[in-house]
Specification:
The structure holds two protein chains of two kinds.
Chain A lengths: L1 E8 L6 H4 L10 H5 L10 H4 L5 E4 L11 H8 L4 E4 L4 H10 L3 E3 L1 H6 L5 E5 L4 E4 L4 E4 L5 H9 L2 H11 L1
Parallel strand pairs in A: 1-2, 2-3, 3-4
Antiparallel strand pairs in A: 1-5, 5-6, 6-7
Chain B lengths: L4 H10 L9 E5 L2 E5 L2 H11 L11 E4 L9 H16 L4 E3 L7 H7 L8 E4 L13 E4 L2 H10 L1 E5 L3 E7 L8 H12 L8 E5 L8 H9 L8 E3 L4 H7 L20 E6 L6 E3 L7 E3 L10 E4 L1 H4 L2 H11 L9 E4 L4 H9 L2 H8 L2 E2 L20 E4 L15 E4 L2 H10 L9
Helix pairs in contact in B: 2-5, 6-7, 10-12, 10-13
The chains are: A alpha/beta, B alpha/beta.
Chain lengths: 165, 419
């Protein structure tokens, strides 16, 4: 599994309120919510993003609320992957549970620039900045979490587990 | 090697003798919680995955609190989804308008959570229940759906930071000043993925409302959970309230902590977290030049009876400053009723404040006090992110009920001093 696209770069502590403001949380519809993704920090993100594009951010990405709507809108917009120095724990968990690929890699998050063309190989954790020619290796997920991702999310993996019992 | 209090609760719920930090476990859940924003997403996922029954109708709590009474048609549809699901599955702890409260004020008050529990909630402030000696953490809607279906959740066993509390708080400070001080020290990711375990002789000087407030904001330091030991204050609070028997777990004497931080409660001062992160704390006394347009006293952090009492003591017989809107939101119907019965409601109105029925409303910029561009609010809520309470150019300053009420009277950020 791979993704390749243009980089949108964000700072430390990007919170779930700027990813998807609560004033729009009166619907669970992902497509409707996705129209407002990143609106309060990057007004034109939704217009600019193309399928496979990559978000690169600093420490503690996704801090704040437990709203699963946050990884959901990032995924629904077509974002192929989020690379950050670290993720807030509920966001991390939610991203895995809904199948949004995320990678922790401090060096990549520091060095990759906005608008660079970047490719990510999820099997190996290798991140390649095609613009600068530099490669990085992200921490791979533990096997337990890899299984959830491979199954297509938590509920699918639970169903598989139940039918295997 | 010894275990922390959190690790002991997790080990017991995973059916293991012991666990160590970093271990992945599957644990049995005592309570699974959701609200009117997160439950509709969970219900969709639950149905999509083909589940048709919940693991235990008595172990699920669904509380309509964020946008009720329904703020608009879409919010009404979300409430309806929760209502229908709760009815279909005979959820015993379903709380609708008239019975509801802000979830993290309501569940402890109603005795739905107790010491020794393992709890997940699709709301980040689910970490509140560590105050009664439970392991309790926020998750997303998919985890809630899985929890409702199976009664289980996976966890990575956290390491811990120990906060050794000594002394007693000054009269103009509360639990809010303690947790804001701590977040100011360690930062918004200072406890990322970890437990915050509050221990020490100072614990006995903290009321249950203080402890609930402190644990509530553990997430604002990135923590997985916050937790207090069970003592006489806890047992007194739980007695006659808990619907299940409390189980007391204690950290082992040789439990390992990543860090130990001493907090002298007597040295705490009224603090305010300035925009746009809860870690931007400064003493309230240094912020007299911050003129405010709005005051909010309420939320899952500070909507409890002691918070209302602090507001009453300060506002009683006084007038809110001209040009300031003061919004007071008791956390539950029971607390609202107490405010009415004790005459506090009248005092609030006479001071020039408005009192709302319980709701998360303005805390997350939902409704009931949204800010315009350039406006400033001092609030007893928990987050001051960009746009949190309204316009992206508005500002939220986080403070205790004492500081918020004192500021309502002057019109600028003011620490409370007893007359």
């Amino acid at each position: 599994m791979n993704t390749q696209g243009k980089v949108f770069k964000y700072p430390d502590n990007v919170d779930t309120d700027v990813i998807i403001p609560a004033r729009y949380l009166n619907t669970p519809d992902a497509n409707e919510l996705a129209l407002h993704c990143m609106e309060d920090i990057d007004k034109d993100f939704v217009k600019k993003v193309s399928k496979g594009d990559i978000m690169v951010a600093g420490w503690n990405f996704g801090c704040g609320s437990s709203r699963e709507h946050a990884p959901l809108v990032i995924k629904t917009c077509g974002t192929g992957c989020v690379i950050a120095k670290s993720f807030a724990r509920i966001f991390y968990r939610n991203a895995i549970n809904i199948g949004l690929p995320i990678l922790e890699c401090e060096e990549a998050a520091e060095e990759i620039n906005a608008d660079d063309e970047v490719s990510v190989n999820f099997d190996t954790g290798v991140i390649t900045d095609i613009t600068t020619g530099k490669s990085y290796k992200a921490q791979p997920f533990p096997p337990f979490i890899q299984n959830i991702i491979k199954s297509g999310g938590l509920l699918n993996s639970l169903k598989e587990g139940m039918s295997n019992d | 090697m010894g275990m922390t209090m959190t690790q002991k609760i997790l080990a017991a719920h995973a059916g293991l003798e012991s666990v160590t930090a970093g271990q992945l476990i599957n644990a049995k859940l005592d309570i699974v919680l959701g609200n009117d924003i997160t439950t509709p997403v969970a219900v969709n996922e639950f149905k999509k995955a083909g589940f048709d029954k919940v693991f235990d109708k008595d172990r699920i709590a669904i509380v309509l609190d964020h946008f009720v009474p329904n703020k608009d048609i879409k919010a009404a549809e979300q409430s309806k989804t929760c209502r229908n699901f709760s009815c279909e599955h005979c959820i015993s702890h379903f709380y609708d308008v008239g019975k509801m409260g802000i979830e993290h004020a309501l569940l402890p008050e109603q005795g739905i959570v107790t010491a020794g529990d393992c709890i997940i909630g699709a709301d980040s402030h689910t970490c509140t229940y560590g105050a009664v000696g439970a392991f309790s953490t926020g998750v997303g809607s998919t985890d809630m759906a899985a929890g409702m279906a199976t009664g289980m959740a996976w966890f990575k066993v956290p390491s811990a930071i120990k906060f050794n509390l000594i002394g007693k708080l000054p009269d103009n400070c509360s639990g809010k000043d303690v947790i804001l001080t701590i977040i100011g020290m360690i930062g918004v990711d200072g406890a990322l993925y970890k437990s915050m375990e509050f221990i020490g002789e100072g614990v006995r000087n903290l009321s249950m409302d203080d402890r609930l407030c402190i644990c509530n904001m553990a997430i604002e330091a990135g923590a997985k959970n916050g937790i207090f030991p069970v003592d006489e204050v806890t047992m007194e609070y739980l007695s006659g309230r808990s619907e299940r028997n409390p189980i007391v777990y204690e950290a082992d004497a040789d439990a390992e902590y990543e860090k130990v931080i001493d907090i002298d409660l007597s040295a705490v001062v009224p603090v305010v977290a300035c925009p746009h992160l809860p870690e931007n704390t400064r003493p309230a006394s240094e912020l007299h030049d911050i003129v405010i347009d709005q005051v909010v006293i309420g939320s899952c952090t500070n909507g409890r009876l002691e918070d209302m009492e602090a507001a009453y003591k300060i506002l009683n017989g006084k007038k809110i400053a001209d040009g300031v809107r003061c919004i007071i939101i008791p956390g539950t119907m029971q607390i609202l009723r107490e405010c009415v019965q004790r005459g506090w409601y009248t005092a609030f109105i006479d001071a020039g404040a408005v009192v709302s029925t319980p709701t998360c409303g303005p805390c997350l910029g939902g409704y009931m006090g949204i800010l315009a561009a350039g406006e400033r609010c001092i609030a007893t809520t928990n987050r001051n992110f960009v746009g949190r309470m309204g316009h992206v150019e508005s500002e939220v300053y986080l403070a205790s009920p004492h500081t918020a009420a004192a500021s309502a009277l002057t019109g600028y950020i003011t620490e409370y001093k007893e007359d």
